[in-house]
Description:
This protein is α/β, with parallel strands linked by helices. The chain folds into two domains: 10-259, Aminopeptidase; 270-334, CATH 2.40.50.630. It has helices at residues 10-15, 67-80, 97-102, 126-143, 181-189, 205-213, 237-247, and strands at 24-26, 32-37, 40-44, 54-59, 89-94, 151-159, 168-171, 194-197, 216-224, 263-272, 279-280, 290-291, 297-301, 304-307, 314-316, 327-334. The strands form two sheets. The chain has a 13-stranded mixed sheet, with helices on both faces. Strand 4, helix 2 (67-80) and strand 5 (89-94) form a beta-alpha-beta unit. Helix 4 packs parallel to helix 6 (205-213).
Amino acid sequence: xxxxxPSYDFLTSTLQxxxxxxxxxxLANGATARWHxxxxxxxxxxxxxxxxxxxxxxxxxxxxETAPIEVANGILLDIxxxxxxxxxHVLLMFGNPEAMQAGERYLDYDMNRLxxxxxxxxxxxxxAQRAALLEQEAAAFFERAPAGCRRLHYDLxxxxxxxxxxxxxxxxxxHERDYNREQLCWLESADITTVLLHSQPAATFTYYTSRHHxxxxxTLELGKARPFGENDLSRFAGIDQALRRLLxxxxxxxxxxxxxxxxxxxxxYDLVKHSDAFRLHLHDQVENFTLLExxxxxxxxxxxxxxxxxxxxxxxxPNPKVGNGLRAGIVIEPVTI
Length: 337
């Protein structure tokens, strides 16, 4: 049986649904690759111990957000060919291969609303079945991790909508846990200094791994969504270099956390679309993090009225086309920690 060559392209094989001829093979520098399922590959360093970082890198949860997929695949190719040493235990996931192949955000249902058990409510959808599988794989990966290691999960995205801050992170709700300031400083090293601190549970992949596996999990929004081959990957150099440093074990010293170097926000409340009468009073191309003038009526829905207060609130993820009962946007406000 032939082993995959150093030029084996995991992205191409995922899109074409072609599993490798053998599920496990050797990489450069003594590392090992282990294929799990379509779009799921484990990378095991030659030196593995209880202090080795366990890092889950996921992208393509929305199939049309291609730049992070290309970034991750480029890092993988360099590990395979020996250009980048591997010092972390990694699980790489291309979240929604069928949607990636179709060039669509999703096929049946938004996958990033189907984690934390929500997939059980939509069992007939392809995304629900895949979300359940990703949860199982993430659980197996983190449950094998020793108590003393760092558990990290970065879920990489891009967006169709523009943003006042081109790159930003979403820190899932932590319940009783505190924010990891070292992780915030790591974000800064990736050219990400805008962070939304979520204030309630969610059905996202990072909330699931944070809540159930105590991972330091972050959703990263890295720029504009474009088709495969049309991305200017120079705009993603920050996250590319930060991941390369992390996975190769280059723990460069980071400056102490300071609030003034970041734009931190918390989710104040959701705009909920209760009925077909919902009207969002923002233009279609409004950017994420747009400042809302004090007194501005953001949206109305029958007898419900959402009105901006204070002049320092901003809008995030406005989308009036969601189904009734779902979130049509988030109103956020600045915060310090």
